[in-house]
């Protein structure tokens, strides 16, 4: 028998612990099997009894790091010369994407190659052991290895836990990723509700390199009931010249750690605008050579596959007695910006407008909020011609503002503009809150000292908007709180019914 003195025994114990530690680490690493979930999950379209869980299978557990190179884009002039994009303009010239030697779309910065396989969702109410399982779903290249899994017959105002498991063959399991969400309360329930919203996220302007947007951590601290992304979730314009590069934009953005962490905890509603559909100020039928092989129609398809979203894209959700939200679609049905203004020129399309007017009129919610990817009130820059605050769509804009003015306690929260503001339409009194861009670096397009009579608040910086609905001493109250990228309050308005 081996006899150990106290010193030797201590060293032996340390050695055993180190061995077990390395062995355990090795086992853990060995147990990690593809497919992975490097782009996380997204919990979307939550109602009082349903939700959609988005998931994607990946070949690797992590994204390609920021140290990897990036491709360059050149445009062919009419004289045959290849040039870089001139002065920020979007030339109507055919592009060419040039990758560094030995690289392609699978190994440039932020790349997260997908992997074929299967995924299964399990869910249960928090505090119970009654796990329910959905059937295994196959993921393949046709949808960028994504799936949108619908949950129905949920209980209102209930915290649910979810687990997603990957597999190559539905027998041997790979990775597991967990999340949670709370369903909306019933329409007659009095319950405090809050949500956060932002817009315009350019990857080049992300304020925490390799980690993601600072506002995601700040929003999570507030524990909102839900989050709304009001469009321009990413920007295809510079590099989205092929379907593969368009998909890479989504993989790159949503594999950032801050984004993965946020979206597995906070349910979201996603609304698209021009840059995350195709290019700046895009509309159906617009012609350009600037976007190469990537088409407007592909952009419409990809959006429905890269985020959890309902069909049709315009929808209304009730969150208890005191809040109902409307999310509108601003790209699918619009007329060309170049069309002369008049009663036939539209952004929403007649079917969507009829739905909006009907559902708003039927609502008995205390507070009603229109969540629009573009401004309804403004003011906006004179050189813009893409939204209801512009002269190019003034006929429909006036029609919508007149309708909103007839509603009690209804407000507009808008995206698209790269500055925060609160404005009141001089003719109708409709009030609009612009959430502003997600980072300071992306702010601009308006002068900070150009505060108009319409403005009660103006700030040309980034951040987000927080909206809180509660009853104070029995009186329904809504608060609109603009915050900066660090979560600090920069403006607050309190409105009681």
From TrEMBL:
InterPro entries: FN3_dom, Ig-like_fold, Metallo-depent_PP-like, PhoD-like_MPP, PhoD-like_sf, Phospholipid_Metab_Enz
Domain PhoD-like phosphatase metallophosphatase, chain residue ranges per copy: 197-423
Origin: domain of life: Bacteria
Protein's name in the database: Alkaline phosphatase D family protein
Organism lineage: Bacteria, Pseudomonadati, Bacteroidota, Flavobacteriia, Flavobacteriales
PANTHER family reported for this sequence: PHOD-LIKE PHOSPHATASE METALLOPHOSPHATASE DOMAIN-CONTAINING PROTEIN, PHOSPHATASE, PUTATIVE (AFU_ORTHOLOGUE AFUA_6G08710)-RELATED
């Amino acid at each position: 028998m081996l006899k150990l003195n106290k010193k030797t025994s201590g060293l032996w114990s340390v050695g055993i612990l180190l061995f077990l530690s390395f062995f355990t680490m090795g086992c853990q690493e060995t147990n990690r099997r593809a497919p992975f979930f490097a782009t996380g999950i997204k919990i979307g379209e939550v109602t009082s009894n349903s939700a959609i869980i988005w998931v994607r299978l990946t070949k690797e557990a992590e994204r390609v790091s920021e140290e990897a190179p990036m491709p360059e884009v050149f445009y062919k002039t009419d004289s045959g010369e290849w040039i870089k994009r001139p002065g920020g303009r979007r030339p109507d010239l055919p592009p060419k994407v040039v990758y560094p030697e030995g690289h392609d779309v699978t190994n440039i910065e932020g790349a997260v190659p997908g992997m074929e396989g299967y995924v299964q969702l399990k869910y249960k109410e928090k505090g119970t052991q009654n796990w329910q399982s959905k059937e295994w779903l196959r993921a393949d290249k046709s949808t960028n290895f994504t799936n949108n899994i619908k949950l129905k017959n949920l209980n209102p105002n209930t915290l649910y836990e979810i687990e997603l498991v990957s597999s190559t063959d539905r027998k041997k399991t790979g990775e597991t990723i967990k999340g949670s969400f709370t369903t909306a309360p019933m329409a007659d329930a009095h319950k405090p509700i809050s949500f956060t919203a932002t817009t315009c996220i350019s990857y080049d302007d992300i304020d925490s390199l390799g980690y993601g947007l600072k506002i995601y951590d700040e929003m999570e601290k507030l524990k909102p009931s839900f989050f709304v992304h009001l469009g321009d979730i990413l920007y295809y314009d510079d590099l989205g010249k092929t379907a593969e590069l368009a998909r890479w934009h989504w993989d790159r953005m949503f594999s950032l750690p801050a984004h993965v962490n946020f979206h597995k905890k906070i349910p979201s509603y996603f609304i698209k605008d021009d840059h995350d559909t195709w290019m700046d100020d895009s509309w159906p039928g617009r012609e350009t050579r600037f976007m190469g092989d990537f088409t407007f129609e592909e952009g419409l398809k990809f959006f429905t596959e890269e985020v959890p979203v309902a069909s049709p894209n315009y929808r209304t959700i009730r969150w208890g007695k005191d809040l109902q939200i409307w999310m509108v679609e601003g790209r699918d049905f619009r007329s060309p910006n170049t069309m002369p203004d008049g009663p036939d020129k539209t952004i929403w399309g007649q079917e969507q407008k009829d739905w909006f007017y009907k559902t708003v009129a039927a609502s008995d919610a205390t507070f009603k909020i229109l969540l629009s990817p573009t401004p309804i009130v403004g003011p906006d820059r004179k050189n813009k011609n893409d939204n209801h605050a512009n002269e190019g769509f003034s006929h429909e804009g006036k029609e919508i503002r007149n309708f909103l003015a007839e509603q009690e306690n209804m407000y507009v929260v808008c995206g698209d503009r790269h500055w925060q503001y609160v404005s009141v339409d001089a003719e109708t009194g409709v009030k609009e809150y612009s959430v502003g861009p997600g980072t300071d670096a992306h702010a601009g397009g308006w002068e900070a000292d150009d505060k108009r009579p319409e403005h009660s608040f103006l700030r040309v910086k980034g951040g987000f908007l927080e909206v809180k609905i509660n009853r104070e001493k029995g009186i329904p109250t809504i608060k609109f709180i603009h915050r900066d990228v660090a979560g600090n309050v920069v403006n607050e308005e309190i409105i009681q019914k």
